[in-house]
């Protein structure tokens, strides 16, 4: 049997090599002499302080306060699976989403668009398949269907500016895998009618809740009503400080398929590199993983959601309760007044000329009012202007395919409300709206 060590002879002298540490010898490299510095440290923290808008004087004080702080040798990391926070911020964000949105499973993503893409893949959208989308709502809904390889098919809306269920059934074909109602601008789709049709026809329901986190339908949080719900938690929405998204579902298999698309590196799995546990579990995906930095901000933002929604609803209720009714103006229909968030008020004057005059007069009174009118600049919130889809789906985007959406979008006067308005602010805004409406319209 060979010996663990060998003797060598040099100039008639036998030398015995040192024993391996494995066999009790000294370690060749017992410890590093170099002192490690954190990969992410004080400088990055101060750069964030600059991004937050602190003054130079305040940043000097922050610098002085944190220079002597003891960071771990390897420092913090901003990746979910190598972070210093226990549990990771991404998990905390998902825990809050399950609680707030009433779902068994949640997976955060780098954006609401990433969450929608994952949902499309989860339900089987792909070449030769179709997904029905509302004709109003941001481009991302139809775009992610196309990104998955499916054809977006636009369904017209009604005076709620939501997908019109009465026109849904006729659009479903053997190629249809899902319908994706958008809870547009803080109001909610008619989920009862949509679900009834979808269940009867055997297709999935993906709720696009990007513009309505915190809204509800008949007491149920949007996102938990269909098969999957997708949210944008970002600086462009009522909560969120940067870029972020969230997908929720009550279906374990849909959750796992969505997770595979969001984190194709397998880090989401119990055993990362194991063979698939059931047919179809593993497939080519992306890296839409949310960083710990964004997750940390959105954990705080999510905790603010109830207060933000409550304040918006209180402002909306006080103003709208004081508004009079006028013959030439129709208010936006609501599918659930108690469930809408109410950060905007929308109405449809009889003509675009009347709408323009009303909007101009409201702005002159100090009230934020937006109006498009015929011939306005393109807007990727209405199907006819979704140019990225034109290369392959121009026929689906024609205005005449969804005439109600095209008409209402042009005639809509959109008035933005502020959650921080006092009761006196609300009364002044309501009085200003009545003043302008009365100048151009007849009281009902």
Folded structure, characterized:
By secondary structure, this protein is of the alpha/beta class. The protein folds into 3 domains: 42-76, no CATH class; 81-303, Aspartate Aminotransferase, domain 2 (3-Layer(aba) Sandwich), CATH 3.40.640.10; 305-372 and 412-440, Aspartate Aminotransferase, domain 1 (Alpha-Beta Complex), CATH 3.90.1150.10. Helix content is 34%, strand content 14%. It has 13 helices and 15 strands. It has helices spanning 42-52, 56-66, 89-101, 112-122, 140-147, 191-201, 252-262, 292-303, 305-322, 352-364, 390-393, 403-411, 423-440, and strands at residues 8-10, 13-15, 105-109, 130-134, 151-155, 176-179, 204-208, 216-217, 220-221, 228-232, 245-249, 329-331, 344-349, 369-371, 413-416. The strands form 4 sheets. The chain has a 7-stranded mixed beta sheet, sandwiched between helices. It has a 4-stranded antiparallel beta sheet with strand order 12-13-15-14, with helices on both faces. Strands 1-2 form a two-stranded antiparallel sheet. Helix 1 (42-52) packs antiparallel against helix 2 (56-66) and helix 4 packs across helix 7 (252-262). It is globular. It starts with 7 loop residues before the first strand and ends with a helix. The model has no long low-confidence stretch (mean pLDDT 93).
